[in-house]
Fold each of these.
Amino acid sequence: MSTVKDIITAIKSQKYRTQLAISAVCVLLGILIVIQLRAQQSASQALQAATESDLTQIVSNLNNEVSLLKAEANSLRLQLFKIERLSSDSSAVMKESIKNLNNLKIIAGLTGVEGPGVTADIEDKEKAINSYDLVDIITELRVGGAEAISINGIRIVADSGITQDSKGVWIDKKLVTPPYQIVAIGDPEVLYETLAIAGGIKDKLSSLVGVSFNITKESSVVINARSASDR
Amino acid sequence: MLPIIGLIIGIAIGLVLNIPIPQAYSKYLGIAVLAALDSAVGGLRASLEMKFNDKLFFTGIFSNTLMAAFIVFMGDRLGVDLYLAAVVAFGVRLFQNLALVRRHYFQKRHWE
């Protein structure tokens, strides 16, 4: 019993507490040293223990891997490039289609058009101008690249009919009477020249009795869509 | 005598448990080893000078280890080998304490 008491008093004494504290740290130190030595050893051992041929093998394996990865990167880059081109292609196609659609709408007279063009005012006091003359004018304008044409506010499209009977000139189902105002959208210079060229339609019609033919270039004219009642 | 037994027990525990440590943390572990060694020698010196205080001792271990770990971490982040600062600090203290411990032993022998 006295030995136990001795131990207890010894533990309680400052000297042993010191010894115990330092010992505890030493335990920790031992554990840490072993772990660290192991970690360092395993890190350096892996390559150091390998023979020269093994190292060569490892290097060539790594080189193979690198070249494989490079090839993969290249193929992926190519794929990316293809996809990018495809997407830009499809958007270009879409743009082109929309442009075509708009052009076709203009030609079919489904939309109103605004832009530069010419206005031809034709005074015809003696009713000397007939439907054929109007068709000639329209033909000339179309040759000159007119995108949209109207006569007295009636849109002229591909299936517009210009006819004549005893009452006068009919465009589709509407009777048109002089003075005629023909509006065309296109390049003003070209359209002007098309009509006013020497020996052209203007000269031909102006020679008729009671006809005056005035062409003006316009920086901006408006032609409305073909109305349902015109058809 | 007891500290040496403790060291042997620690080594035995380390060998038995075989704790794997990722390569990235081996720097931290090295600093921890240094901190522990510094604390052990520092404690020995304090005990020989009859100035040992266990609260001071244990808080010293933890604060030193944490500070050292923080310095290593900051060094890694900043791209500076800051852990060298901890290594130098611990190393210098280690040698100083060792010298004092040695002197103490010889002086004690001398006085006897």
Amino acid sequence: MSTATAAHHHDDHPTGIMRWLTTTNHKDIGTMYLTFSLIMFLVGGSMILAVRAELFQPGLQLMQPEFFNQLIGVHALVMIFAALMPAATGFANWMLPLQLGAPDMALPRLNNWGFWLLPPAAILLTAPFILALFGIGDGAIATGWTFYTPLSVQGGIGVDFAIFAVHLLGISSVMGSINVLVTIFNMRAPGMTLMKMPLFAWGWMITAFLLIATIPVLAGAVTMLLTDRHFGTHFFDAAGGGDPILFQHLFWFFGHPEVYILLLPVWGLIPHILSAFSRKPTYGYKAQIYSFWAIGILSVVVWAHHFFTVGLPIPALLYFMYSTMAISLPLAVLFFCWIATMWKGSMTFETPMLFATGWIILFGIGGLTGLILADVAADAQYHHSYFVVAHFHYTLFAGGIMGIMAGVYYWLPKMTGHMYSETLGKLHFWLTAIAFNVTFIPQFFLGLAGMPRRIPDYALQFSEFNMISTIGAFTLGLSQLIMVYNIVRCVRGGKKAEAKVWEGAEGLEWTLPSPPPYHSFTEQPVIK
Amino acid sequence: MATSIVDYKIVARPNNSLSPKKTVNIVALLALFSLSVAIAFGFAGAWMVFPFAGLELLALAYAFYFIHCHADDYESITISGDRLAIEKHYYKNTSQVVFHRYWARVVLRETPSGEHRLWLRSHGKEVEVGHFMNNRQRLALARQLQMRTGAFH
């Protein structure tokens, strides 16, 4: 047999800017999602640092209340839609094909399109700030991320920009979800049944189901808002026979599952890390999957707990209170499994494990404070206070972003082929964990003492806790630059990473070299 | 009436872990939930949810339909008598190339990553085969074709 060597176009791919514009490769698109997410994380973080600077002392110091409200609203939209969701999608792009033994995502062109809708959406969200500098419009959306009517009907062009941004982000999310579902269902390697799938894939599958179930409701709601603003409809205008509370129902029908959309990929990812660094198999694999399903299903039937105080009928209050509290049962199963995975394990605390264990504690606080808010009687006291702000930052920053950071450190050597600096990683973890608590524990006390959220000025009695919170926020913000530096350093070089970077790591992604070849799994693995 | 005896036939298909029945179940489940929500909100006055839910379900159904169409993709190589036929089905298109068995040549080329790609060539015309195979399977196929065709390069 003779073998000729000829054209190598199978391994060819465009270089330079065209590679990134036209790529259909899951790893390239995953990298773009993660990079975009990191940039928007810094943008959204900068906005809230300006807010915290204003709140350092009582009285108006740096900005007018309108601008303060704009910063808060866009911070939330950027962090949720442009930082946290793209980060999870970036991991899905990078890791799902590797974990499932597939050569790529099922619909690669759709994948490219899904990503490239994000930058225009980010521009739409932030452009009103710039336009206002030139005298066009009155700035960005100032209603908070919830678009509540009638304020959003009366708002400036920032609301319109945000509506179109949300539409683009929604389309992108739906396209990503369709791709994830088709990939998971159709491209698993032979032998990989659903009940052998990695938990990260399970978490993402339920996330995709939730997105597909709820995004049309958000799209319908913001379109109705747009027509109320510009086309004379009265969907949410009580004077015209509409119902402003209907908007809250619509928004939170999407908004509450959105919390789990952000968290489920992290719940899927954390067990991999706990198992790898405890050198033990994941405890309660099936129990975790059933809990994912239970939480996913419950998440779409509990939405009104976000507006208990709006004046709902008593039976509705009771139903939403009990159904919300019911979520704590499957969540408790998950916590049990996470802890049991570590139990009597041969544990080591490299940076991903530090983030994962810190995540369990901090996300636990987020969950427990959520139970307090689920109580109708207690919620009347805490609603719209800083207690709520602290609670959802424990769930979304600690439970979401710190989980993503654990994933970054866990998979970064696999993605780049280089080891990151453990010293810097650990420094980043400790500064983040401490500064996060310094920022948000005072906010629990502020809320309990009665300080409302979304105000640029406050009573003197709240001064000390606000000062501490601001110091914590700046430390938290600046410590993220350590992670940025560590990532850049790791991408540019460093100690070579082995195929199986972590001794205890299990899964198909660790059978490929680090970094994996441009085309993953040209030979299909068989799972026994 | 002439009868042809097939000396050798191989059919290769891509891996599909989803059966058509499960595809229908998944799309139906999502459609049931999404449309129920849209109808419920429609009765509450938010009828604009409905067109978005419909558009999304169309996109979802099309995505699954698209991969379902590709589920039937195949490559087949049939050798009967002095005839070597390569048939490819991709999406909804089927193409066939027929070579003279004893003039056909098997060509293997190595890529920088160590993978091998396989062609059948005759009279200046070349057809790549083995798309749905891994490297080991392509090498095995090359050996089998070599034994049954004119020569091997």
Amino acid sequence: MEKYLVSSAPYLRRADHNHTTTRIMVDLLIGLSPVILYSIFKNVVFPLIKGTTDVLGALYPLLTLVVSPIYSLLLEALCLYIMKKKDIKSFKDLIEELKVGYGIFPGLFIVLISPPQIKFWILLLSITIGEVVGKMLFGGFGQNIFNPAIVGRAFMAFAFSSEVSSSYLNVYEQTLDAYAGATPLIQFSTLETITYENAVSNFGSLLDFFIGSVPGSLAETSALCCIIGYIYLSVRKVIDYKVPLIYVATVFLNTLFIGLVLGQGIWYPTFNILSGGLMFGAVYMATEPVTSPKTNLGRIMNAMMLGVLTVLFRLVGNLPEGVATSIITMNIFSLVINKYCIHMRVDGKLDKNEVPGLVIFLVIFMGLFLYNIISFL
Amino acid sequence: MKPRRLPELHIEGYKEMSITQGPKEFLKPKSVFIPLSIPNGVVFKKEIGDHVLLGEAIMEVEGRFKYPILSPVSGTIKGKVKKWHPSNKLVDMIEIENDFKEEKVDTFLNLKPDEMTREELINVMMMTGLVGMGGAGFPAYVKYSTKEKVDMVIINLAECEPFITCDYTCVLYNAQELIYGFRYLLKAAGCNHGVIAIKDKDINNIVIEMLKPLLDSNMEIRLLRDVYPAGWERYTVETISGRTYKNLPIEAGVIVSNASTCYSFAETLKYGIPPSKKYLTITGDAIVKPGNVIAKIGTQINDLIPLFGGIKEGIDISNINLIAGGPMTGKSMFFQDFVTTHTLGAAIFLVNKSKGKIHPECLGCGRCTDYCPSFLSPFEIRRELKVGNLEELKLLGVTKCIQCGLCSFVCPSRIELTEAVGKAKDMVLKLGRK
């Protein structure tokens, strides 16, 4: 008698009905499309409309946007070929492996959070570090501890800091005197006395920050586009809607208190959540599933810590940008938070031996929150 | 203590396909087969070659809870044979050749349940070897002979697995018997509050309308959300009674019985027929005309398939999953000649829809954790299983797994999480026994 197919239960899978990891990645791309389209408009189309003479310079960001994901994918293919020589016998096998490695994302994310006019070789080197060291050395997709894009971007920031800070202006912005060669946050970190005029007025109003017409990394200037992406990704359940919300809310609250200490109005926290990569980081990077905690409580704890760390690095530590640093810092603790929350979830109540963990978390969180405020007294 | 809200998920039911036609009958099998694969062992009451009546005890199950296994037909015991069991194992079974006379034992004839005491009703359950027909197969008399105070008996009509409609059919065609049986289940529990738990979905409206006028004053119908795993005992008890418990529902003062169990009990009390038949759903997208059938326990499934037009032409057998039980928790079988048992509710023929061999690595989306009704973290259990860290597996609570299949169901990378957690559970339980 002929045998039926024997496999393991359950025999209904969402993954067989398009609820796949690949679908999640396609959704992520769709969620990224508002910021990508806006960045092309702002850095390529707009300067051309304004009649810039440097046409090549205006097209340059578009070129980096196209080349980076492809370069990243090629690197992944090379790494896979070296790592899995035994399994990969034909070109077809390699394609199959590439399909489930999602190699375009480290490259795409790195170029999106890099300055628009960054030198090509610096960009490619950073992608190499992000893709190879950040992802493939750990074993490829799903195995990495740190967010590969942030590994690459952090490398760029620390190894080529002056190159990075001088490449933020696109060809149109370079022609404007008001910007003085810096992003709002770089300018902000050098201010002697903080006033609304000093911090914001150079770049227009806070509405310009919201829409994104201020200098900054390629795709992270527009809070509006990030919010559109956030809504799409939340509805599609690709990201946990709570994480960006809590992250941004924590930064807002903390800077609100700092603003009060400094005698500043509501513009101060608003400026802080709208500037730099906070919105982009909160929506697209803090929610990155591989490297962040996987339980509900863990994700909330992670988001809260990201908030106070961002304020710490950005305002107290005087780094121009705190988002990437705080995300990579929390990546280290994500395994610990994960284990802790998983154990707590099993029996649904706080055991005696689980109390210290929660106390430590609250002490660190509240400590940093208060320290951020006190250091401005 | 108030229960934690259990994770739940709506799953497409596919139930309409098997209720378009009324149930068929297959009560005259040539022979029936009774499995001997019972962990605690059995004591034989009959010899090979003996003649048995319908309802006569062939053997008694040993262990803490003794109960008899009755013959579902009248006929002759032919001997021991190897047959496929719904667990996809080839096991020893007793073959009984049917003489088609349907001669019943007279023990249960002319029972007058209105005059019987609680103890006598429980005694009937024990004598008929009534076991839970929802899947667990736990002897009913053990549940009902509790010394705790019972303040609610729930008839579980949730049938939360997709495709299966055997309880639905059983109730639709035997509504009066169900209520009749329920009346005496309540008496056997010494309890005055009965609840019929049914899912709030369109196809169930007809059942609800049918049951409503029949209900006694101490019975009510309560609706469950149309989600999986609404039929899980804990889910049903916690959502209906609002109380939680540690191991057994009786700790919350609740007894749960499946609708088919209740129907079998009614048949015994009303007509003197011990549990010998059961409604089965034969369905799936590979079956020509899916539907239900009432068949003797111990029938071979391949005798039933022709009643439903057989398997669709042009589909390769080796690409069909034949599932004994529901598609979420059932087992896939090698061959179609396996034997039905008290706890089997369906045989489902599903065309395999898995595409591609390579699946992505765990993305870490955490969906398996979000949806686990036992609050476990399957992705973490899978990782610790790879390392073989048994102590950690124990801390992760693997023994709480109910193998509901939700983790594998939701996994976007199609990782075999349910299988991994099951393996881990077995390992930890084995370690505990040593």
